[in-house]
Amino acid sequence: MNDIQSAAADLAETADQMNADVSEAQIRDQIEELTEYRIPLEDAVSTVRSRHELFGPMEIDAVADIDEDGEWFNLEVQVVELWEPNSDAIAQTGLIGDESGTIKFTWFDGTDLPMLEEGESYQLESVVSDLYQDRMSVKLNKATDVVELEEDIEVADRETEFNGRIVDIRDNSGLIKRCSEEDCNRVLSNGECPVHGQVEGEWDVRTIAVVDDGTETRVATFDAEATEELVGMSVEDARNMLAKNPDPDMIQHEIETETLGQRVSVTGPQYENDSSPTIFVDSFETVSGVTMDDIDNVLVRARS
Q: What's in the keyword line of the UniProt record (predicted)?
Protein backbone atom coordinates (compact mmCIF):
# COMPACT_ATOMS: atom_id res chain seq x y z
CA MET A 1 0.00 0.00 0.00
CA ASN A 2 1.50 3.33 -1.06
CA ASP A 3 1.14 6.64 0.82
CA ILE A 4 -1.93 7.76 -1.14
CA GLN A 5 -3.71 4.45 -0.57
CA SER A 6 -2.85 4.57 3.14
CA ALA A 7 -4.13 8.14 3.50
CA ALA A 8 -7.31 7.29 1.60
CA ALA A 9 -7.92 4.26 3.82
CA ASP A 10 -7.55 6.36 6.98
CA LEU A 11 -9.90 9.03 5.64
CA ALA A 12 -12.39 6.39 4.50
CA GLU A 13 -12.44 4.95 8.02
CA THR A 14 -13.46 8.38 9.35
CA ALA A 15 -16.11 8.59 6.61
CA ASP A 16 -17.54 5.22 7.69
CA GLN A 17 -17.71 6.35 11.31
CA MET A 18 -19.60 9.46 10.24
CA ASN A 19 -21.83 7.62 7.71
CA ALA A 20 -20.57 9.98 5.01
CA ASP A 21 -21.70 9.32 1.43
CA VAL A 22 -18.24 8.86 -0.07
CA SER A 23 -16.29 5.68 -0.80
CA GLU A 24 -12.64 4.88 -0.28
CA ALA A 25 -12.16 4.69 -4.05
CA GLN A 26 -13.62 8.17 -4.53
CA ILE A 27 -11.39 9.56 -1.77
CA ARG A 28 -8.31 7.91 -3.31
CA ASP A 29 -9.12 9.24 -6.78
CA GLN A 30 -9.59 12.79 -5.45
CA ILE A 31 -6.31 12.70 -3.56
CA GLU A 32 -4.46 11.33 -6.62
CA GLU A 33 -5.97 14.04 -8.83
CA LEU A 34 -4.72 16.78 -6.50
CA THR A 35 -1.23 15.30 -6.19
CA GLU A 36 -0.96 15.20 -9.98
CA TYR A 37 -1.02 19.01 -9.81
CA ARG A 38 2.02 18.78 -7.51
CA ILE A 39 -0.02 19.55 -4.43
CA PRO A 40 1.72 17.96 -1.40
CA LEU A 41 0.01 14.83 -0.14
CA GLU A 42 -0.71 16.35 3.27
CA ASP A 43 -2.44 19.34 1.68
CA ALA A 44 -4.34 17.10 -0.72
CA VAL A 45 -5.66 14.98 2.15
CA SER A 46 -6.65 18.14 4.04
CA THR A 47 -8.52 19.43 0.97
CA VAL A 48 -10.46 16.18 0.51
CA ARG A 49 -11.21 16.06 4.25
CA SER A 50 -12.64 19.59 4.11
CA ARG A 51 -14.55 18.90 0.90
CA HIS A 52 -16.52 16.08 2.55
CA GLU A 53 -16.42 17.56 6.09
CA LEU A 54 -14.69 14.46 7.39
CA PHE A 55 -13.73 15.87 10.77
CA GLY A 56 -13.85 13.05 13.27
CA PRO A 57 -14.15 13.49 17.01
CA MET A 58 -11.43 15.68 18.50
CA GLU A 59 -8.65 13.80 20.25
CA ILE A 60 -8.40 15.03 23.83
CA ASP A 61 -4.98 15.10 25.47
CA ALA A 62 -4.28 14.47 29.15
CA VAL A 63 -2.67 17.26 31.16
CA ALA A 64 -0.05 14.79 32.39
CA ASP A 65 1.08 14.25 28.77
CA ILE A 66 2.14 17.88 28.34
CA ASP A 67 5.89 17.49 28.66
CA GLU A 68 7.42 19.23 25.61
CA ASP A 69 7.76 22.93 24.84
CA GLY A 70 5.92 24.42 21.87
CA GLU A 71 3.52 21.56 21.21
CA TRP A 72 -0.24 21.91 20.53
CA PHE A 73 -2.87 20.20 22.67
CA ASN A 74 -6.63 19.81 23.04
CA LEU A 75 -7.76 19.66 26.67
CA GLU A 76 -10.90 19.12 28.71
CA VAL A 77 -10.24 20.66 32.11
CA GLN A 78 -11.71 22.30 35.18
CA VAL A 79 -10.50 25.71 36.33
CA VAL A 80 -9.07 24.93 39.76
CA GLU A 81 -8.02 28.45 40.71
CA LEU A 82 -7.62 31.87 39.15
CA TRP A 83 -4.64 34.03 40.11
CA GLU A 84 -4.04 37.75 40.03
CA PRO A 85 -2.06 38.59 36.86
CA ASN A 86 1.36 40.09 37.56
CA SER A 87 1.33 42.04 34.31
CA ASP A 88 -1.15 44.30 32.51
CA ALA A 89 -0.44 42.26 29.38
CA ILE A 90 -2.00 39.15 30.95
CA ALA A 91 -5.79 38.93 30.72
CA GLN A 92 -6.12 35.83 32.86
CA THR A 93 -3.96 33.19 34.51
CA GLY A 94 -4.50 30.35 36.92
CA LEU A 95 -4.55 26.62 37.37
CA ILE A 96 -6.49 24.07 35.30
CA GLY A 97 -6.60 20.31 35.65
CA ASP A 98 -8.09 16.97 34.76
CA GLU A 99 -7.94 13.53 36.37
CA SER A 100 -4.29 13.16 35.30
CA GLY A 101 -2.94 16.35 36.90
CA THR A 102 -2.88 20.15 36.92
CA ILE A 103 -1.05 22.84 34.97
CA LYS A 104 -0.79 26.62 34.86
CA PHE A 105 -2.56 28.46 32.02
CA THR A 106 -2.15 32.01 30.72
CA TRP A 107 -3.77 34.06 28.04
CA PHE A 108 -2.78 37.55 27.08
CA ASP A 109 -4.83 40.69 26.67
CA GLY A 110 -5.90 41.20 23.08
CA THR A 111 -6.82 37.54 22.57
CA ASP A 112 -10.57 37.48 21.92
CA LEU A 113 -11.56 34.71 24.32
CA PRO A 114 -14.27 34.41 26.98
CA MET A 115 -13.11 34.79 30.58
CA LEU A 116 -12.84 31.43 32.34
CA GLU A 117 -14.72 30.95 35.60
CA GLU A 118 -13.25 29.24 38.63
CA GLY A 119 -14.83 25.83 39.21
CA GLU A 120 -16.23 25.57 35.66
CA SER A 121 -15.13 22.99 33.09
CA TYR A 122 -14.07 23.73 29.51
CA GLN A 123 -12.88 22.16 26.29
CA LEU A 124 -9.79 24.07 25.15
CA GLU A 125 -8.89 23.36 21.53
CA SER A 126 -5.42 24.32 20.31
CA VAL A 127 -3.47 25.50 23.35
CA VAL A 128 0.31 25.59 23.12
CA SER A 129 2.74 24.34 25.76
CA ASP A 130 5.38 26.63 27.22
CA LEU A 131 8.42 25.72 29.31
CA TYR A 132 9.79 28.42 31.62
CA GLN A 133 12.22 27.93 34.50
CA ASP A 134 11.72 24.16 34.30
CA ARG A 135 7.95 24.48 34.74
CA MET A 136 5.46 23.54 32.04
CA SER A 137 2.37 25.66 31.35
CA VAL A 138 -0.08 26.22 28.49
CA LYS A 139 -0.97 29.40 26.67
CA LEU A 140 -4.33 30.20 25.17
CA ASN A 141 -3.97 32.10 21.90
CA LYS A 142 -5.85 33.40 18.88
CA ALA A 143 -6.18 29.86 17.51
CA THR A 144 -7.70 28.53 20.75
CA ASP A 145 -11.38 27.63 20.80
CA VAL A 146 -13.08 27.65 24.23
CA VAL A 147 -16.28 25.68 24.85
CA GLU A 148 -17.89 25.44 28.28
CA LEU A 149 -18.78 21.87 29.20
CA GLU A 150 -22.01 20.81 30.89
CA GLU A 151 -20.35 17.98 32.81
CA ASP A 152 -17.69 18.67 35.42
CA ILE A 153 -14.18 17.43 34.71
CA GLU A 154 -12.73 15.57 37.68
CA VAL A 155 -9.39 16.91 38.87
CA ALA A 156 -6.71 14.66 40.31
CA ASP A 157 -6.63 14.50 44.10
CA ARG A 158 -3.48 16.37 45.13
CA GLU A 159 -3.86 15.94 48.90
CA THR A 160 -0.54 16.23 50.70
CA GLU A 161 0.91 16.84 54.15
CA PHE A 162 3.90 19.08 54.83
CA ASN A 163 5.70 19.85 58.10
CA GLY A 164 7.98 22.79 58.76
CA ARG A 165 8.41 26.25 60.24
CA ILE A 166 6.71 29.38 58.97
CA VAL A 167 9.59 31.51 57.69
CA ASP A 168 7.77 34.23 55.78
CA ILE A 169 4.33 35.78 55.33
CA ARG A 170 3.66 36.79 51.74
CA ASP A 171 2.31 40.16 50.65
CA ASN A 172 -1.47 40.23 50.13
CA SER A 173 -1.94 38.40 53.42
CA GLY A 174 -4.30 39.93 55.96
CA LEU A 175 -7.52 41.83 55.27
CA ILE A 176 -8.64 41.74 51.64
CA LYS A 177 -11.80 42.34 49.66
CA ARG A 178 -13.33 39.84 47.24
CA CYS A 179 -15.76 40.40 44.39
CA SER A 180 -19.35 40.29 45.60
CA GLU A 181 -20.79 39.16 42.27
CA GLU A 182 -22.33 35.68 42.35
CA ASP A 183 -19.84 32.81 41.79
CA CYS A 184 -16.87 35.15 41.39
CA ASN A 185 -14.91 35.56 44.65
CA ARG A 186 -11.86 37.14 42.95
CA VAL A 187 -9.61 39.36 45.04
CA LEU A 188 -10.17 43.06 44.30
CA SER A 189 -7.37 45.42 43.38
CA ASN A 190 -8.16 49.03 44.28
CA GLY A 191 -11.81 48.08 44.58
CA GLU A 192 -11.91 46.59 41.09
CA CYS A 193 -12.57 43.02 39.97
CA PRO A 194 -10.70 41.93 36.81
CA VAL A 195 -13.99 40.57 35.43
CA HIS A 196 -16.80 42.73 36.89
CA GLY A 197 -14.99 46.04 37.28
CA GLN A 198 -15.75 48.35 40.19
CA VAL A 199 -17.76 46.50 42.84
CA GLU A 200 -18.50 47.02 46.53
CA GLY A 201 -16.81 43.77 47.51
CA GLU A 202 -16.91 41.61 50.61
CA TRP A 203 -14.29 41.56 53.37
CA ASP A 204 -12.16 38.47 53.88
CA VAL A 205 -8.92 37.59 55.65
CA ARG A 206 -6.22 35.13 54.63
CA THR A 207 -2.67 34.11 55.42
CA ILE A 208 -0.18 33.15 52.73
CA ALA A 209 2.74 31.57 54.57
CA VAL A 210 6.04 30.08 53.41
CA VAL A 211 6.73 26.84 55.30
CA ASP A 212 10.30 25.48 55.35
CA ASP A 213 11.20 21.93 56.45
CA GLY A 214 14.94 22.61 56.24
CA THR A 215 15.26 21.11 52.78
CA GLU A 216 12.45 22.59 50.70
CA THR A 217 9.57 25.03 51.03
CA ARG A 218 5.86 25.13 50.36
CA VAL A 219 3.48 28.08 50.19
CA ALA A 220 0.55 27.40 52.52
CA THR A 221 -2.64 29.42 51.97
CA PHE A 222 -4.92 29.68 55.02
CA ASP A 223 -8.48 30.89 54.40
CA ALA A 224 -10.43 33.02 56.89
CA GLU A 225 -11.44 30.08 59.09
CA ALA A 226 -7.91 28.64 59.18
CA THR A 227 -6.42 32.11 59.75
CA GLU A 228 -8.67 32.65 62.76
CA GLU A 229 -7.52 29.30 64.18
CA LEU A 230 -3.86 30.03 63.42
CA VAL A 231 -3.67 33.65 64.50
CA GLY A 232 -6.77 34.20 66.61
CA MET A 233 -7.97 36.90 64.22
CA SER A 234 -11.39 36.84 62.57
CA VAL A 235 -12.52 39.03 59.68
CA GLU A 236 -14.35 41.26 62.18
CA ASP A 237 -11.26 41.46 64.40
CA ALA A 238 -9.15 42.56 61.44
CA ARG A 239 -11.70 45.20 60.43
CA ASN A 240 -11.79 46.58 63.96
CA MET A 241 -7.99 46.73 64.07
CA LEU A 242 -7.93 48.59 60.76
CA ALA A 243 -10.57 51.04 61.99
CA LYS A 244 -8.36 51.93 64.99
CA ASN A 245 -5.14 52.07 62.96
CA PRO A 246 -5.57 52.67 59.20
CA ASP A 247 -2.06 51.39 58.36
CA PRO A 248 -2.77 48.83 55.57
CA ASP A 249 0.31 46.77 56.52
CA MET A 250 -0.63 46.54 60.18
CA ILE A 251 -2.75 43.38 59.80
CA GLN A 252 0.04 41.54 57.98
CA HIS A 253 2.54 42.63 60.65
CA GLU A 254 0.24 41.22 63.32
CA ILE A 255 0.06 37.89 61.46
CA GLU A 256 3.85 37.83 61.18
CA THR A 257 4.23 38.45 64.91
CA GLU A 258 1.90 35.56 65.74
CA THR A 259 3.20 33.04 63.23
CA LEU A 260 6.86 33.49 62.22
CA GLY A 261 8.91 30.66 63.66
CA GLN A 262 5.87 28.53 64.43
CA ARG A 263 6.21 24.88 63.44
CA VAL A 264 3.10 23.61 61.64
CA SER A 265 1.87 20.49 59.91
CA VAL A 266 -0.46 21.47 57.04
CA THR A 267 -2.70 19.20 54.98
CA GLY A 268 -4.53 20.02 51.76
CA PRO A 269 -4.44 19.83 47.96
CA GLN A 270 -1.10 20.84 46.45
CA TYR A 271 -0.73 22.63 43.13
CA GLU A 272 2.27 23.83 41.16
CA ASN A 273 2.74 27.58 40.99
CA ASP A 274 5.46 29.82 39.54
CA SER A 275 7.72 29.50 42.58
CA SER A 276 7.12 26.97 45.35
CA PRO A 277 4.28 24.44 45.20
CA THR A 278 1.17 25.79 46.96
CA ILE A 279 -0.93 23.92 49.52
CA PHE A 280 -4.46 25.18 50.13
CA VAL A 281 -4.86 24.32 53.78
CA ASP A 282 -7.83 22.12 54.67
CA SER A 283 -6.50 21.34 58.13
CA PHE A 284 -3.37 22.00 60.17
CA GLU A 285 -1.76 21.42 63.54
CA THR A 286 0.74 23.54 65.40
CA VAL A 287 3.70 21.58 66.69
CA SER A 288 5.19 22.32 70.10
CA GLY A 289 8.89 22.66 70.83
CA VAL A 290 9.49 26.12 69.36
CA THR A 291 12.14 28.03 71.32
CA MET A 292 12.83 31.75 71.41
CA ASP A 293 16.11 31.07 69.63
CA ASP A 294 14.16 29.38 66.82
CA ILE A 295 11.92 32.42 66.50
CA ASP A 296 14.84 34.86 66.55
CA ASN A 297 16.63 32.87 63.83
CA VAL A 298 13.57 32.79 61.62
CA LEU A 299 12.91 36.50 62.09
CA VAL A 300 16.50 37.28 61.08
CA ARG A 301 16.12 35.05 58.00
CA ALA A 302 12.76 36.57 57.01
CA ARG A 303 14.09 40.14 57.25
CA SER A 304 17.37 39.50 55.42
A: Coiled coil
